């Protein structure tokens, strides 16, 4: 199961980055998806992917990395014929924050080490 999740995480990350960095003009309007909602969901999935790919990475660090990826994507888009946007980066940050909050709720606000200790008793 772990291998499947890691493969899924890698595929999700690769597809999302290709869609965001690629020279696809007007992808959002062609697919009738609101751009900011797409960024919000995509970066929640990127945080999930980082968590699956790097299981020992603390989630807060994964969130920082996901936000940095969002900033880098916006900078790179300038060179691929797309328009960088502060609004897109804000949507990325909100998506990461929401995914992080959902993860904390799901885990009961306990760190991974506390869950492992309680499961072995």
What does this protein structure show overall?
The protein is mainly alpha-helical. 76% of the residues lie in helices and 0% in strands. It is built from six helices and no strands. It has helices spanning 2-21, 27-30, 35-53, 59-77, 86-106, 112-120. The longest helix has 21 residues, at 86-106. The radius of gyration is 16 Å and the shape is globular. The two termini are 24 Å apart. The mean pLDDT is 85.
Rg to the nearest angstrom?
16 Å
Distance between the amino and carboxyl termini: 24 Å
Task: Please outline the major beta sheet.
Answer: none
Helix content: over 70%
Class of secondary structure makeup = mainly alpha
Number of helices: 6
The count of strands amounts to 0
Apparent shape: globular
Provide the residue-averaged pLDDT: 85
N-to-C order of helices and strands: HHHHHH
Strand % is: under 5%
Low-confidence stretches: none
How would you describe the oligomerization state of the chains in this entry? single chain
């Amino acid at each position: 199961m772990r291998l499947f999740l890691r493969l899924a995480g890698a595929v999700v990350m690769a597809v999302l980055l290709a869609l965001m960095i690629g020279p696809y003009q007007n992808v959002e309007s062609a697919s009738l998806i609101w751009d900011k909602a797409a960024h919000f969901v995509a970066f929640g999935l990127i945080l999930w992917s980082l968590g699956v790919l790097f299981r020992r990475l603390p989630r807060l660090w994964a969130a920082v990395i996901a936000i940095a990826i969002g900033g880098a994507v916006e900078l790179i888009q300038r060179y691929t014929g797309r328009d960088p946007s502060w609004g897109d980066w804000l949507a990325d940050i909100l998506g990461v924050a929401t995914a992080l909050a959902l993860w904390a709720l799901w885990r009961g606000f306990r760190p991974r080490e506390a869950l492992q200790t309680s499961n072995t008793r």
